[in-house]
Amino acid sequence: MMKPISVRYGKDTESHQGEGRIITLEFPKYYLTTVYTPNSGRELVRLDYRRQWDQRFLTYLKQLEQKKPVIVCGDLNVAHTPMDLANPKTNYNVTAGYTQIEIDGFENLMKAGFVDIFREFHKEPGHYTFWTYMMNARAKNIGWRIDYFLVSSALRLKVKDSFILPRVLGSDHCPIGMELNP
């Protein structure tokens, strides 16, 4: 097991303190940042906060990337495209995690050079990382893909695979993984 050079909790001293949202590990060749992105909430009451979060998080990642490539993993609380959730039409712009504002925030990560590495290997729909506990959604595979590995474009060719482990139980989410060549 490789030990990190340094560990950083959080990204700034501004409005996100106390939410335990980000941990960044520095390794010799890259940063690994794990994140739990704020949910916009029922009736989208935190959507403005979410927009600000997305902008600040991107700024933080780009600051890290000035020093070395970045790997981002975690719950980004957004389904990026219609294929990333089972019912896109009924959820669009009414459900947290699938509003245009949240989609745009994720798209800004892509435009800034980050790669949704799972989609590089798996282009087909039906892959989800989250299922509500209600209505037997997991057994029916009525879910959302809101957990991601994103990599700086400089790391793209070093990634061997990315995967989702939907049969691993223990939460309403399932584990995801990525294999990185040395």
Quick summary:
The chain has 182 residues and is of the alpha+beta class. The chain has 5 helices and 8 strands, in the order βββαβααβααβββ. The protein has helices at residues 47-65, 88-91, 100-111, 117-121, 137-140; strands spanning 6-9, 22-26, 31-36, 70-75, 114-116, 147-152, 159-164, 176-180.
Describe the structure.
The protein is of the alpha+beta class and 182 residues long. The protein has a single domain (6-10, 20-180), classed as Deoxyribonuclease I, Chain A. It contains five helices and eight strands, in the order βββαβααβααβββ. It has helices spanning 47-65, 88-91, 100-111, 117-121, 137-140; strands at 6-9, 22-26, 31-36, 70-75, 114-116, 147-152, 159-164, 176-180. A six-stranded mixed beta sheet has the order 1-2-3-4-6-5. Strands 7-8 form a two-stranded antiparallel sheet. Helix 1 (47-65) links the parallel strand 3 and strand 4.
List the helices and strands and how they pair.
Layout: E1 6-9, E2 22-26, E3 31-36, H1 47-65, E4 70-75, H2 88-91, H3 100-111, E5 114-116, H4 117-121, H5 137-140, E6 147-152, E7 159-164, E8 176-180
Parallel strand pairs: 3-4
Antiparallel strand pairs: 1-2, 2-3, 4-6, 5-6, 7-8
The overall strand count is 8
Main sheet attributes: strand count, strand direction, barrel closure: 6 strands, mixed
By DSSP (H or I, 4+ residues per run), the number of helices equals: 5
Global shape: globular
- Determine the strand fraction and express it as a percent band: 15-25%
CATH superfamily heading: Endonuclease/exonuclease/phosphatase
Q: Give the topology string: H per helix, E per strand.
A: EEEHEHHEHHEEE
Measured as a percent range, the helix fraction is 10-25%
State the separation between the terminal residues, measured CA to CA: 13 Å
Q: What is the residue-averaged pLDDT? A: 94
| Estimated radius of gyration | 16 Å
CATH topology: Deoxyribonuclease I, Chain A
CATH architecture: 4-Layer Sandwich
What is the SS-derived class? Answer: alpha+beta
Taking pLDDT < 50 over at least 5 consecutive residues as the criterion, the unreliable ranges are none
